[in-house]
Amino acid sequence: MAKKILITDDAAFMRMMISGILEKEGYEIVEAVNGEDMLIKYESEAPDLVLLDITMPVMDGISALKKLKQVHSEAKVVMCTAMGQQPMVLEAVQYGALDFLVKPFEPGRIVETVKRVINK
Description:
Radius of gyration: 13 Å
Largest sheet: 5 strands, parallel
Shape: globular
Strand order of the largest sheet: 2-1-3-4-5
Structural class: alpha/beta
Number of helices: 5
Low-confidence stretches: none
Helix content: 40-55%
Strand content: 15-25%
């Protein structure tokens, strides 16, 4: 059975790019447009991994991570961040993120990170 990944980013082109990379690797993809949407889809889809952008409208990634981990402490989350957001990445790791990816993404790094975190 294919592993399911929930990609959360407010930019449609980012979701599409990451989806394309991971679908080629055989992963099933679910998408969310912000942190609030991710929390709803996490409940209905039970993904194996969440890729979570830090900066989004409605609910940012840090707030969404905190809420997700309160209910699902076992949730596997990798934060997605732009260069220069290191303080937020450190905060995310304190709240339970297992790794992070820096934009612009390298396809090989996405695949390597996803495989490593899913298999933890």
